[in-house]
Design goal:
Layout (H helix, E strand, L loop, with lengths): L8 H9 L5 E6 L1 E14 L6 E14 H10 L3 E8 L3 H12 L3 E7 L7 E7 L4 E7 L7 H15 L4 E5 L8 H14 L3 E4 L13 E2 L3 H8 L6 H15 L3 E5 L5 E5 L2 E5 L12 H14 L4 H15 L10 H6 L4
Parallel strand pairs: 1-4, 1-8, 2-6, 4-5, 8-9, 9-10, 10-11
Antiparallel strand pairs: 2-3, 6-7, 11-12, 12-13
Helix pairs in contact: 2-8, 4-5, 6-7, 8-9
Amino acid sequence: MTLSPALSPGRARELAARFHTMSVLVVGDLMLDHFVIGRVSRISPEAPVPVVEHDHDEYRIGGAGNVAHNVRALGGHVELVGIIGRDSAAGRLRGEMIAHGMGADGLVVDPARPTTTKQRIVTTRNQQVARVDFEADTEAAGDLEAALIERARHALAHADVVIVSDYLKGAVSRGLVAAIVEAAGTRRVPVLVDPKIPHIDYYAGTTVVTPNHHEAETATHMRIRTDEDARRAAKVFIERARCQGVLITRGEHGMSMLDAAGEAHYPAVAREVADVTGAGDTVIATLALALAAGAELAEAAQLANHAAGIVVGRFGPATVSPAELIAEFPA
């Protein structure tokens, strides 16, 4: 793959300046991240495990919600469509969304399943002791799928771009993606997908799919070690997923993109890597806002690459502000 022309500082500022006028629809698997934080000073006499003395709890919006959080941090408006249960976690999740300025009208209640929650027991030194998952990952069907489609179509009427955030937790179905692609097509709205490979056949007709290199290898049965490997894998991935373009995130090796307009590789720009958690959410949020703002995929990919370089230098799921992103392109 070749390097496409570098994004000029003026063009980067022009695109980022439009982010606050863009409306993003995020559809997918919503989660509540619950952190039980405490101190460890001894081992339990009952079993060889640490005893955590509770200090406090923290809650964060996870899964598709973290994508939406990244959109908001970049200045975009966001509406979420996904499934919650009828439980206390649902109330907590809805409250966190509203507090962060996210539209919650697209939430569909399924009383038959819990709100997907990841409860992590963590020490005050940020060491994870254990994780307990509350979830039911049966794929939405029947009335539940119909309700998700109806909410997505309604929200899409006002969206400039759609992100499908798939975590295999049940919200993303073949019928839902097909309905989104059809409705978005009538308005020429881009549809981006953060994928899970078991659902690769669901993504036909979408604008861009953003697998990491492990997912791309699994989907294509190809090893990706070089830029040329990535180029070949990208072509096979597009054929397999029947999407219009692909952006493969490759960690310290950067990103590789391919669509009808061309192909390119972008070296990683991270100065120091502290934590890659949530970097994919930052990438697709930046990519979506840039495309909505009128960028070509090659331009959007460069903005996303720089955004990823910022967040991996921070611990835990992090976000990027427009000012920080613009600062990556000094005049």
